[in-house]
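User: Sequence in, structure out. Go.
Assistant: Echoing your sequence, followed by the structure tokens.
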Amino acid sequence: MNFSRRNFIRSASVLAAMTMNEMQSMAAAMEVRTNGNTVADNDDAFWDKVRVMFPLSKDLTYLNNGTFGPSPYPVIEAVKEGMMENDMNGQYGNWDVTVSKIAKFVGARDEEIALTHNVTDGINIGCWGIPLKRGDEVIITTHEHSGNAMPWMNRQKQHGIVVKTYTPASTAAETLTRINDLISKKTRAIGTPHIPCTQGQILPIKEICTLARDKNMFSIIDGAHGPGMIPLDLHDIGCDTYASCSHKWMLGPKGTGFLYVRKDFQDTLSPLTVGAGSDNGKWDLMATPVVTGDYVGNAHRYYAGTQSNGLYAGVVAAIDFIEMIGAENIYKRLKHLGKYTQDSLLAFGDKIELLTPTEERSRGPVNGFRIRGTDFQKFFGMCSQKKIRIRGVNENGLNSLRVSTHIYNNKQEIDKLMSVVKEAIG
């Protein structure tokens, strides 16, 4: 998308309706276009201009991107324009543009991308679509979001599979060892997250998928926190499926997601639900007996029916926004803020229990921690009173805290959080 006046205005009347923040955002867009150049991760002047492009309330310190990422103005405007085009002209379809954009963004082919509403949709397709029988084993972590835990536990209840768990270790090598030690002759799949939602550890996903392939197992990956945080090449990772969303690190519209299904895996993975678009059009209800049609020869078999033109126009705009700044620039900035958060927490010594590894390859912009002697819910309440948004983590009884930063954040906001940590400790 061309980030110029036409992305913000369609007429003089729209210009008149623009807020001052939107006008400032339009000006900032001209200044943060990098044209492929490198931006320093500590160039605060540049990243302050990026912040202007978000409608975040100035009295809110938002450190919870791991739940969802606020969309910048160009994405919001693209959603509005897409809906207006739909309702003015009766436009229908046009989702192939979004599929192609996503495929290029994550290192896949167009025919390997299915549009979904969220990560949970994609995980369920992977979970229920692989051929498993009673007694077959699936490996997941003890740090799962309910969106990845519940589908596997539900299939355990319905079909009698066995769910086995491992706890991610402080190093990538030890994590791989723990997974390998769980594998038996009955293990058929690894359903692990790329980055657990609880503490943001970047797992050695390529090695995990290689291990699965070498052991003749399926790799069904929860990729909620991958795209937009880490530059991806799903072909290089080598997974069978990768479920993700657009509303976290991609900064796209809420209610949008996608599922990658490796092309030569599509005849193995059965669709969960089907409808218009899932078939090849060669079916005949007048025949006796009824002739059943076949699936379409791409990942469209995994999604069907009407999609939102406006929302998926917003996904395209979100990818354009990331590419305007540069995915590598964003990744380095996120790592920079993540390390600053880690270092700030570690400065409190034994008063803090850091749950996220400090190993370079395993850390990112998400940090999980506990404050010794302070209930996590009490601290969450202290932050809320000061209009600091973080996340309490009660999954699997972890009872911890999570802070997740994106490109709209700065060190001053992290320092503000640390002042509350100091208050809790003191």
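User: And one key feature?
Assistant: Residues 199 and 368 are 4 Å apart (CA to CA).
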